[in-house]
Design a protein that fits this description.
The protein has 126 residues and is mainly beta. β4 and β5 form a beta hairpin. The chain starts with a strand and ends with a strand. The chain contains no helices and 11 strands.
């Protein structure tokens, strides 16, 4: 049962910050690339960011580049998404996904990820 759990979502004002966490249940992320994704009501799930197995490579969508930072802590078996300068357009359910991977860059296309969490709600509003 390769399940992920997201946490850290909530209600925040525009310009505020949140940090999301992704932790696996029942397996190690040591050999997995991890991505963050979001889905707003009535829209398709979209990639936000990803990080390579080693943590040395990251990728961001244009909409979040410069505001969000993905990182991982292998010792804690956790991946984070630091979200700064939040805007209302960031409002969505945020999901993390994991996929077995080796060396090389990551991608944040949802279709390549095989293990998912249930999501955490992020709402940016005054």
């Amino acid at each position: 049962q390769l399940r992920l759990v997201e946490s850290g979502g909530g209600l925040v004002q525009p310009g505020g910050s949140l940090r999301l966490s992704c932790t696996p249940s029942g397996f190690s992320l040591d050999y997995y690339a991890v991505g963050w994704f979001r889905q707003a009501p009535g829209k398709e799930r979209a990639g936000v960011s990803c990080i390579t197995v080693s943590g040395s490579g990251t990728r961001y969508s244009d909409s979040v580049k410069g505001r969000f930072t993905i990182s991982r802590d292998h010792a804690k078996n956790t991946v984070y998404l630091q979200m700064n300068s939040l805007i209302p357009e960031d409002t969505a359910v945020y999901y993390c996904g994991a996929v077995r991977a080796g060396h090389g860059p990551c991608v944040y296309a949802p279709k390549v990820y095989t293990n998912w969490g249930q999501g955490t709600q992020v709402t940016v509003s005054s």
